[in-house]
Design brief:
single chain, alpha+beta, Alpha-Beta Plaits, 4-stranded antiparallel β-sheet, two-stranded antiparallel ribbon, 3 helices, 6 strands
Length: about 140
């Protein structure tokens, strides 16, 4: 289920490119304003076998796994994932959260992102956590 959601989200989000497993850098953005950065989005489904992930459980995960790694800041968006279930032949819906992080694109930043993905998959019995990366410009 999660993998199909990832494909749909990837196709729908224009301008996104994947970071290869070797961690090859993204093309550098040509900025009129601000500095070149990488915007990473993690799509976190809130359903799991036997039920859903509570707001308390998610908040605890953010406090213990995300905030310590992303001290400079991040954004949490609420979402609704949808995908076609091959098993049931219907469109499935799943509440989700999207974590958004702007960073320098370094190997260290990528490692922190991968640690968060792995922790979420393990903690909440997920099939996958979609990651998208894109070159962007940011001015704070």
């Amino acid at each position: 289920m999660q993998r199909t959601l990832g494909l749909i989200a990837f196709v729908m989000v224009s301008g996104c490119v994947s970071v290869s497993s070797a961690g090859s850098p993204l093309p550098v953005a040509q900025c009129q304003v601000g500095e070149p950065m990488v915007e990473t989005m993690l799509y976190l489904g809130r359903l799991r076998p036997g039920g859903s992930i509570s707001r308390y459980e998610f908040a605890r995960f953010v406090e213990t796994e995300v905030a310590p790694r992303w001290k400079e800041g991040f954004t949490i968006l609420d979402g609704q994932g949808m995908w076609l279930s091959d098993q049931r032949g219907i469109t499935e819906r799943e509440p989700s959260h999207v974590l958004v992080r702007l960073h320098d694109g370094s190997a260290a930043a990528s490692a922190d992102i991968e640690a968060i993905r792995a922790a979420y998959i393990k903690a909440f019995e997920q099939d996958a956590v979609l990651r998208t990366d894109r070159a962007t410009c940011a001015d704070f």
